[in-house]
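Run log, item B.
One chain of 113 residues. Sequence copied directly from the ordering sheet:
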Amino acid sequence: MPCVSISTSPVHLLQILRAYLEQFICEEAVTSEGCGARPLPGTRLTIPSSSNPLDYSTLIESLPESDSPALFGLPANINRAAGRAASAAVMAQLKLVTTSQVSLFTGTHKGTK
């Protein structure tokens, strides 16, 4: 599965990280009654209900190489949607380059008559 990369500001990335940490690394997550009793979205893995670091190491080692979009609350077709968005961005850049090249060859400059 291809990697989905989204450009965003460092502040926004920190907000996303904080939301995930609050969801999975909280007091309720390490009790059998809390969110640790549920599997992580898109996996069969659960947050350990202990404070033993080895349990967390085991969990981390058992994570798959590529993450399921469901783990991040994303739809299964997110790669396709991201591909379309990337294609649209490339097409917009190509149109801009083409317009610039045409104005160079015709001697016109955008904004002049």
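Observations after the first pass:
- The chain has a mean pLDDT of 75.
- The CA atoms of residues 52 and 58 lie 10 Å apart.
Flagged for discussion on Thursday.
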